[in-house]
Write a structure and sequence with these properties.
- By secondary structure, this protein is mainly α.
- It has 2 domains: about 160 residues, no CATH class; about 100 residues, Herpes Virus-1, CATH 3.30.40.
- The protein contains 12 helices and 3 strands, in the order H-H-H-H-H-H-H-H-H-E-H-E-E-H-H.
- A 3-stranded antiparallel β-sheet has the order 1-2-3.
- Strand 2 and strand 3 form a beta hairpin.
- The protein starts with 17 loop residues before the first helix and ends with a helix.
Length: about 300
């Protein structure tokens, strides 16, 4: 069962404690999983920043192209819409124009948002990362699929047309270019906004995020050795009978690590986690503090010895 309780921005310091999560009905295992999920999101949000900057740059580069194609589409249909064509490109044009008018945002207002407020009965809070209700997400997906499908239909009609490229060449070419551009743009934005976060989260769980993205947060070598290796004992583990990262039950066959803060994880899960974050997934305590303090003490001793020599 998926329980969404974390609505604050990761890293805001406002996430609830384990006790608060269990108090609202979550089991201890679900509470631990939710805390780990929030810790994962903190890493993902930090890593996704550069991707979003690249996304913004690409959008800025594509915007002039979109305006040129839109202007060409308007001009060509104004000049040739009355000409004969063996496929209904005029119908496609009218629906495409309605879709643009439906989604265009002027001063924070659009027909699209009005439908969400009046039909879906939902008002999105300002500057909030709150996940919208399922009905709103379904509506967003429905409109996205319709727009994508309509542009695919436009491409299909231009491909099967036998006479439009001769009787109305500008209208034919404008439809083809505008539809092809929007098919690409829709795929690009959907993958960027919906797929990227899930991809990074998946890479995070497997410890496969590029080192350049996490080098400033990864634990130093030797951190895993600081964590105590234990054998599964139901009485000692109490209600922590599952690994909070992978949600698999502990058993005596598993290699289990007990962190310096007293939490239990599969060794493999903790190894992957430490590759991208040095803090405990549950309580966010720095698991490498003693290692670095030990290194600092060793360096100080070496420096003093060198001075005396």
């Amino acid at each position: 069962m998926s329980v969404v309780v974390m609505l604050q921005r990761p890293g805001s310091g406002q996430r609830p404690s384990r006790a608060e999560l269990t108090a609202i009905g979550l089991t201890p295992a679900q509470a631990d999983q939710e805390l780990v999920r929030q810790s994962e999101l903190e890493v993902v949000y930090a890593s996704i920043t550069r991707w979003m900057m690249l996304f913004g740059c690409i959008i800025c580069a594509l915007l002039p192209v979109s305006l040129v194609l839109f202007s060409y589409l308007i001009y060509s249909f104004a000049q040739e819409s009355w000409k004969d064509c063996d496929v209904p490109l005029r119908v496609w044009f009218y629906v495409a124009m309605f879709n643009i008018a439906y989604h265009i945002n002027l001063g924070g207002r659009s027909l699209h948002r009005q439908v969400i407020r009046s039909v879906c009965r939902y008002q999105a809070p300002e500057q909030s990362l709150e996940i919208p209700p399922a009905r709103v997400r379904f509506y967003h997906w429905l409109t996205t699929i319709f727009v994508f499908s309509w542009h695919c239909i436009g491409l299909h009609w231009t491909r099967i047309s036998l006479s439009c490229h001769e009787t109305a060449p500008n209208m034919f070419m404008a439809t083809y270019l505008f539809a092809a551009f929007n098919v690409f743009f829709t795929i690009f934005t959907v993958v960027s906004t919906y797929g990227l976060q899930h991809m990074l989260a998946s890479l995070l769980r497997r410890g496969l995020l590029p080192s350049s993205m996490v080098s400033d947060r990864a634990a130093p070598e030797g951190t895993i050795e600081l964590q105590q290796t234990v054998i599964f004992d139901p009485q000692e583990f109490g209600d922590a009978l599952q690994c909070p990262v992978c949600m698999e039950d502990f058993s005596k066959e598993h290699k289990i690590k007990k962190t310096v803060c007293g939490h239990y994880f599969h060794e493999s899960c903790l190894v992957h986690w430490l590759k991208v974050n040095r803090n405990c997934p549950l309580c966010r305590r720095d698991l490498a503090t003693s290692l670095e303090s030990g290194n600092s003490d060793s360096e100080e001793v070496s420096r003093v010895c060198s001075t005396l020599a």
